[in-house]
Give the backbone structure.
Amino acid sequence: MRLAKYLAHAGVASRRAAEKVIVGGRVSVDGEIVLDPARDVGDEHRVTVDGRTLKGIEARVVYLVNKPLGVVSTARDTHGRPTVVELVNKDSARPRLYPVGRLDVDTSGLILLTNDGELANRLTHPSFEVPKTYRAKLGGGPIRDGALRALRRGVELDDGPTAPARARRVGGVGSNLLELTIHEGRNRQVRRMCEAVGHPVLALERVAFGPLELDGLAAGAHRRLSERETERLRAL
């Protein structure tokens, strides 16, 4: 198995990120620094990253987490803020987990954690167009029909036009609650799209990721995906 893939399956990082770790001189095989991500390795080799010996390929797992507000979606935070990984990794026996994509600290809702770097990369890569659905409470009065039409067509942002989105008003005419489904992953995209159509976001929650939904999972809670659910993700 190629070294970059080995690191990804060992839960170090996605395969693309693992390549950068290797080229950065942070990986040794049997005591020798290796800079080639294509180097063949197996369980008979001793592979270390930053001096830490890997235990080999881990069983791949995926957790669904309902991220609360104020929690950052990173594996660690230099400012000491609570992280989404800490919500799951309370058991040292569990594999090292990493978030699949990100949610802003002021956005709540569904985020996935996994040690499967290859799956994480596929779920976040724009070419796979994995849909993500958000519920947003908007300012600017009741949601206007023109705003819904604009979101469905795609709106112009400072980094270019967005792809068409699925947008619907929740609660009927006069409501300021929007459900929006996108398949891009730009920084603060939902907030910027709503602002562009005259409705700033007051509160934002992600309620679905591909075929997965929160289904009443409490804020801060998590559950491990079944093998069937994980295979549905791979099929995307």
